[in-house]
């Protein structure tokens, strides 16, 4: 259990400012080591700097030089607001550098540096970042190589888990923040998941854009409709002449690929919409983007059991792989099961399309294909046969599904109509070689 600490920075008071915080000192009694520079990287126990003792008179300080760094391990990634150090230099001044990292062997990123001098012992350093490890080290200054200091206590204030902010870390970050991270004070997101923007990432991409920071441009969607704000899918299909999940490919470019992939036995081979969003995302407009709306369930919980909307009374559509739809608007963020499309995956594929999100086209010679697999179950147009009606009738056959046999007196008939266009056997004539002829090879 962490100990909540309220303290006043007396140095700030002396300057006319009052600095008060209610964040927890997360560093208290955590693992701390002093790591010497060099190939060996020798470690020395440094628990004295996180034991809660701040006095300089009890001998519980760590003597440091610029030959190593203090490394504190919090055991997990935390959100840091500021760091308070109790440090004393014998004379003159030095510089204290602070870094954060999620790995003990990584240089990480620099939070900042602070000038320390003999006339002051307590330093509050603003460092708002997320990290598992924090390191402090003395920096050389203009050629001085014997910089030293006594470090008595290091207090790290913040939230003991990332993804929270505010007084006592009591407020979760907005749900559309990238990696669930937000400013520990204001709650503004440090980046948004795909499809959203704004200080708290409550606003969907608009005006024909989608994706990360709404920087991607939608393709040519049918009826000038905007694409899905997260993955760019044109939910109503593409304008004539274009294909692909983003409606950014010419029909001719994908025709051969369609034929080859459909030969995969009796299953949909459509590639689904990119699953780039791993969190539910709110879509209701928010005035001044102050706070994303909360779930609509009467108990304040997100809808479950494949439901969404007001009081969770609406049923989700056919979301991909039984994924739950968005608890507020019912959208399927990772696309639809094969055979369904639209934002909520509540409409079956129309004639001429099949597969995941209905983005695959039935074979051009197919009378009507299965909405899930693309198999031409009803049959093929005259002159074609096969699972996807991609094969021409073999010699000697014609008609729907190549189900008719050419007249026996034909040398070869038209695969569509059965007309003996290659002539008749000797002694026969006529369009279908059905009449006895006086001369050979008469039509």
UniProtKB/TrEMBL annotation:
Keywords: EGF-like domain. It comes from the Eukaryota. GO terms for molecular function: scavenger receptor activity. This is Multiple epidermal growth factor-like domains protein 10 isoform X1. The gene is LOC111115272.
